[in-house]
Amino acid sequence: MEWFRLSCRRLFATSYAKSSYHEGSINPFADVQWIARPFMKRNMPRDHVLAKPHRSLKAVTMLDEETRNHWHIIDAKGKSVGGLAAQICRLLQGKHRVDYSPLKVSGDSVVVVNAIHVKFSGHTWDTKVYKFPRKTHPGGPKVLTAKTIMARNPSMILNLAVKRMLPNNRLRQLFYRKLFVYPGAIHPHWQLPQVVVPAVPPPEAPNCPFSVKLASPEEAARRIKALSDLQASVVAEVHS
């Protein structure tokens, strides 16, 4: 039965992309340290060669005229998970509003893009673990590292951080429903503006009427000849 158990483990094992070249055990007291990454550079998404230049607005807020609800579109690229999750929780609960009340849902909706580019400091990608309890499984909870979760579902890291920061009461699910996290740079909400927009080309310099433009050699020779002919005609009229 041992061979059957090993074959089943190989068959149903979930494979994922390696996060770094250092897949061994982590020694925090080693002389040489490295920063853990969820993916290697060659596994990260790249811009297409035909894609137009783009820029990020970092965050955009829009007011829905029908529901009088604010929508916040946030670019998570380069931001830490904890700091961004705390900011999102504040927006979801409505603590930034003057009519905030802990007994009702008065927060705004939040859309997060580029969730695949969030950051953890140090060895957190390799040392932080998430436990998912399984009541019907006698082997205990399912334990996954942050690196494994990012490889399987890039949006899950930020979703779990926000959900566990929200208050543990009956309003948590109502707050959590207003959060939309997407790993890519473009969200599918067509009625909302995008936070990653095409780059605006620099404006062209206006045509100044007083600008100096050098003439070509042929044009300069023609002007000199015309000036000399005019001078000769004036001299002839004076002496006549």
UniProtKB/TrEMBL annotation:
GO terms for cellular component: mitochondrial large ribosomal subunit. The keyword Ribonucleoprotein applies. Belongs to the universal ribosomal protein uL13 family. It comes from Eimeria maxima. One of its GO terms (biological process) is translation. This is 50S ribosomal protein L13, putative. Keywords: Ribonucleoprotein, Ribosomal protein. One of its GO terms (molecular function) is mRNA binding. Signal peptide: none annotated. It comes from the Eukaryota.
